[in-house]
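Working notes for the structural subgroup meeting. M.R. asked for a predicted model of this chain before we commit to crystallization trials. I am recording the input and output together here so anyone reviewing the notebook later can reproduce the run.

Input as submitted:
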Amino acid sequence: MAKISPKLLREAKAGHAPALYTLSRTIDETNYTEEILDIALMHLEPDLVPREKSTIVKMAPLATAALGCLVSIPNACKNTPFRQRTIDIILEKLDGILAWVYVCLEDIHLTGRSSGNGGFRFTFQILKRLWTTRDSKGEPLMEHFSPRHCTILLVMSRWVDHPLSAETLVIRLLSDPSSIKSFTDGLIDRGKLLPKLKQKGVAQSSVNEHVNVVAVIVNSFVKLSPAVTQHLRTSRFLDEWTRIVLDLEQSLRAYEIVLLCCRLLILTTTPIEHPLRSVALLAPVVMPIFARNLPNAKIDGNLELMVTASLKTALESRLLFPRGIRALRSAMDDFDPSGTKMGRSKLPSWTAFIRGVKEQGDFLSNSSLEELGICDSIAPSLQHDVYDTEITMGAQCSGCHSVVYCSLQCQREDWNERHRTECLAMLRSYEASKRDNTHISHQTRAFHIYIAKASHSGFNLWEARREQEHPGVPHNELVARMNFGLPNPHLFHRIDDIRPGSQARPICPAWNARREGMVSDFRRSNDTQRRLIDWNFSWNVEYQISLLTEFQLLEFEDGPAEWVLARHASTGE
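Returned structure, recorded in token form:
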């Protein structure tokens, strides 16, 4: 049992950060008193929140220390009579706590201050506790705090906006699968509360803020962690948010529902959903809502920016086939494309956007379904799993079509023929995408085969230069050496276990002998249809892989000869 001296309590109360850090490390079940909670919270009052940057930088270290003390308190009192009262007091003071978490994150952005004093760790711990806490009704916390009128969602978005803090958060999420689940469940549960907030009379700006911040958070995590992306996908995250938009449509103005649709479009174009699922949501659900409300929406700069950005992204991703395009074209026609009613007819940016939408719409509308590689009659019941392809069979085509959203003319078509020409093409497209996006460890043989095949174009370039750069050198004396630098998104986006601080270790010691054997065998060979290439892949100062590959030129009866991967060996990291 560690006794807490009165001097330490006095210094902590006076605002000495070192004393607060010491207090956070000292308290336990045997020495905790409610006075310690009062000391931590007195430095986290919302009235003390600074507004100027200089004041934020000055006051953030004390707030970080107070948050560190606050994080330690729930564990210190978990088996004491004070536990429930302590939790209730913390929830009552949630406004101030969130405000000061926000200040600490602002300080990280402004100063790049290192986490040596535990700033990242403390803010993560308190944020996780607040994110996963439920109220008496089992609902997540959605309180606002003064004077910024922000929410816990905005605090979370500020966290993921900073590379170092976001990386720290991802590392901690990946260390515990239950953390990933609690994080994504928190996003979905907060979405489900939005219709209730509207019914309670919460300002529409607050509802919009929640939707917008969720989009920011999801986009950030999609870029940072394939593991989080996979959980969002398997949890049907986008399905839930589509239902939320449908629930809100009747209670919102046209302007507001168009903004929500734009944000849903942005969510849809992230990798959390394969295009196959995205089209199933966009064509029969989102685009009709968008088309109904767009002509009646009052245009301002914010809406124009959101409409332009979201539709351009969706069009470039080819997510509006072709039914969504028809709905969009109809909406654009009703939307006064000249811009006269909006007073925007002379704005080059707006007219260029309208023209671009028309052109891409024409391309998608006139292209064949085989060219687009997607089906236009996807039923909402179409199932999609990350690891397995599962398609719910429809009654009309012995495949995956459904007549729920089809016209009478569509019902009279040869469904089996449509299944053969459309659904199977769609399935092939899905399978190819799944092969390219399944995340694998960089410490596996499968990954090394993947990067060798992905780098095949580099080998072709080297082969074309070989005779010019090394004239007269026998092929069996020439081992090509190729270096690949910092992250290549096409090559390394599937890696999900490379994190700062991880210990590099050999992939497989036996491969060193395999490598030496490949080199010796190649040098003894006189086969002109073999090539040996030594690749070096590096994507930060800590990690690199040396990969030796042997390609062989093979003849094919139905096509030209091709270089194929014959053998490979890796020396490790």
